[in-house]
Amino acid sequence: MLDVRKLRLLRDLADRGTIAAVAAAHNYTPSAVSQQLAALEREAGTALLARTGRGVTLTAAGTVLAAHAEEVLAALERATAALAATRTALSGPLRIGAFPTAMRTLLPAALVALAGEHPALDLTVDELDPALVPPRLRDGTLDVALVHDYDLVPIAPDPALDTAPLLDETMYLAATRPLDLAQCREEPWILAGPGTLCHTMTLRACEAAGFLPRARHHADDFVTVLTLVAAGQGVAVVPELALRPPAPPPGVVLTPLATRRRTRFAYRSGAGSHPSIAEFIATVRSVAATGLPAPTIR
């Protein structure tokens, strides 16, 4: 019989690429991970790893077993969800991840509603960029997250995760005078931090307009970004959620762009029917549909 805990390590090795990265994700030593994977090879009766210099790669058998591990882990998530559904009340931890604009606009009202309806739920929230969410969901330190991507920066499906749609947003060019994107070739730009989806999206939008933006400042908080735009420090691309109260500072002119930002819920495959996750999704959708003030656009 194959051990589920060892299968999880193999799945994570397929995803993370190195034993050291798997060890760090699980707070193990690399030696302990190697021993567990060696034990899994004995259970499987075949070689699952091939040594390549100082690293390892999966053999054909290891690749097949890692793919089946996804199915096994998803089945366990469904079993956990079904068991939780037999309880009379929602309780226990619900660990939530969210990007900054969702933290400011969507989550406060949702958390208040959830805490009022289900006081035995232990709600915790981490603010983080969507690029950091998948490993946190896979290693179990998050249960559900709000993530986003852009039509210019689509995210490839992750076999370990499921998603559900929440909303689509218009993106806006923020400046101190009416401009279209092509007119911003010589403008200084306020960009998000390198490595974030927002940064990559702006680069691709500008590339599509025929230029690369010249960064003057980097800022990830859109309130700060709009304040810098109003101060004449540059132009920026911002999402619709960033225009919810507080209103943009006076002097900011917003021009809608063709590109869109898509916000989704993400959770481990098989976990979507867990009562706590399903209730979180329903509550945030209600807030998004009825509880958000209209964006302020001048």
From TrEMBL:
Keywords: DNA-binding, Transcription, Transcription regulation. Belongs to the LysR transcriptional regulatory family. The keyword DNA-binding applies. InterPro entries: LysR_HTH_N, LysR_subst-bd, WH-like_DNA-bd_sf, WH_DNA-bd_sf. PANTHER family: LYSR SUBSTRATE-BINDING (PTHR30346:SF29), TRANSCRIPTIONAL DUAL REGULATOR HCAR-RELATED (PTHR30346). SUPFAM superfamilies: Periplasmic binding protein-like II (SSF53850), Winged helix' DNA-binding domain (SSF46785). Residues 2-59 form the HTH lysR-type domain. This is LysR family transcriptional regulator. It comes from Dactylosporangium maewongense.
